[in-house]
Amino acid sequence: MSVTLNIAPAENEVLTNLANFFMQVGTEAITAKGRFSVSLSGGSSPKKLYELLASAEYKDMIDWTKVDFFFGDERNVPHTDKDSNYLMVKTALFDPLSIPHENIYAVNTSSGPEGASKEYTIAVLNYFEGKDQIFDLVLLGLGDNSHTASLFPHTPVLDDKTASVQEVYLEDQQVFRITMTAPLINLAKHIAFLVYGKGKALAVRHVLEDDQDIPEFSAQLIRTDSSVVWFLDEAAASELANK
Description:
Blueprint: E1 2-8, H1 11-33, E2 36-40, H2 44-53, E3 67-71, E4 73-75, H3 85-97, H4 112-127, E5 137-140, E6 165-170, E7 175-180, H5 182-186, E8 190-195, H6 201-208, E9 227-233
Parallel strand pairs: 1-9, 2-3, 2-5, 5-8, 8-9
Antiparallel strand pairs: 4-7, 6-7
């Protein structure tokens, strides 16, 4: 596995570095095959990235009509709910850039957790026409409990060996989420983690340097033969011994 650490002094530079990487990977994909498939992450950190991509500095750097957007995970709420990953990305990225509706592959949460996960598994399979489900880029975040996407510690989805989308119930929060499995994420050509802030430093160390303990540090599941780049600020990288 090829893991690269891209460490910047502060949050703004981390976001700029990842925005540049997004444009590089996207341009290469469009040049090679005419489309760029990207799986998005939810949360407050990615929101700032999406706003940057939609800004005057970046919005004309790629042909957005050739970009297809998926979601690595979603909360089991309507698309109009304030906690919806779809709504956040719609507000930060899709609407400002006038992304065509047919380029957006949202999770149909109205089908319930099980129905939504099955429908999304089929949607991904159909997009790749039954061939290997290799996204050009998967964007991921990291929780302070070392989870990524909705691959939470001590949940059954961590043992799923299928390249699919599954529902996961979070006992402590009494809620369902819908998530891509680690095997599906790991097929991607490029994976980029966006992590900044001192509060994530211990989680970063657990995932990258501690002994393997997947039930506890579930983002350790993201191990692929392709490229994994961690975009960190110095605060998030501060617990790492090797950087």
